[in-house]
Amino acid sequence: MKKRFLVPLVAxxxxxxxxxxxxxxxxxxxGIASANDSRTVxxxxxxxxxxxxxxxxxxxxxxxxxxxxxxVSFNRTVLLMGQVEHERLRSYAAExxxxxxxxxxxxxxxxxxxxxxxxxxxxxxxxTSKVKTQLLASxxxxxxxxxxxxxxxxxxxxGLISADDAETAVEIARNVNGVTRVIDxxxxx
Length: 189
Hints:
Blueprint: H1 2-18, H2 21-36, H3 41-59, E1 68-74, E2 77-84, H4 87-98, E3 105-112, H5 118-137, E4 147-151, E5 154-158, E6 160-161, H6 163-174, E7 181-184, E8 187-188
Parallel strand pairs: 2-3, 5-7, 6-8
Antiparallel strand pairs: 1-2, 4-5
Organism: Pseudidiomarina taiwanensis
Signal peptide: 1-21
InterPro entries: BON_dom (IPR007055), Lipoprotein_DolP (IPR051686), Transpt-assoc_nodulatn_dom_bac (IPR014004)
């Protein structure tokens, strides 16, 4: 019984005193996230690189300065969300992202309309948390393998999952308060 408490205590104290606790906790969290992710580690790294390049591409383009465009890459498929002033900019943004090295497919879910404000962004974060919590609590779907993103009340679901899990996840998300629409961007395996 004593050994069960002593080993973690000594490890925690040693790491805290050496200043490495933050690094270990961060690395552990990243490791857990990677372990639960259905993508390979290589695909996860590729997706991070794609997101960085895509955001830089959009930020450097003066035609898109008034737009709000979010970029999420999952298994080399890019999901674009946000708001632009007119349809030409919506199409233009997607075309720019299609040219980013490594991008296989683009889901263009950018809406033509007024850019959302901080209040809606906060509501979206809350909706994402509620959907993710419901997915993780469900015994009918592997919620840890599903990425959830919300933009202006619309919930986007991404992941490499079965068709049954995709259907269940969409139904769970639809029933969360505040969700106006659910967009299935799953890659079914």
